[in-house]
Design goal:
With 121 residues, the chain is mostly helical. It has helices at 2-25, 27-32, 41-58, 62-88, 97-116. It has one domain (2-116). The longest helix is centred in the middle third of the chain and has 27 residues, at 62-88.
């Protein structure tokens, strides 16, 4: 089990770090899914990108692993309104409605994935 957890941690870290970089490479995608009631759209896109990258990196060292996992959970909860907004406005990202619907529980899977890394080895 420790090897599986190590591989899982590295995969989650890599996913988050790549996603964080993408906020700077393709900010227009993230800007499209920002709910209009939030202020400072571009700043929030960049801030969430930095948070994803840093939390992903902090998931690797033993000393910061648990804190990073809790931070990832908090971040995933904080960005969930963007997923709801995208589901409500599917014309933003043309895809079958099932794809948009699947994004919502997928967030819960990522939360559970991060939560697993809050648990002792």
């Amino acid at each position: 089990m420790p090897q599986l957890k190590a591989v899982s941690r590295w995969l989650l870290a890599l996913f988050l770090m790549v996603a964080g970089v993408m906020h700077f490479v393709r900010p227009e995608f993230y800007l499209k899914i920002m709910p209009p009631y939030l202020p400072w759209h571009l700043e929030l896109v960049y801030l969430s990108g930095v948070a994803e990258f840093v939390l992903g990196a902090l998931l690797i060292p033993t000393r910061t692993r648990k804190l990073a996992a809790w931070g990832i959970i908090a971040l995933l909860l904080a960005v969930f309104p963007a997923n709801i907004y995208l589901f409500q406005h599917q014309e933003i990202l043309p895809a079958p409605p099932l794809v948009h619907l699947a994004r919502l529980p997928l967030q819960a899977i990522f939360i559970l994935w991060a939560w697993w890394h809050t648990r002792p080895e």
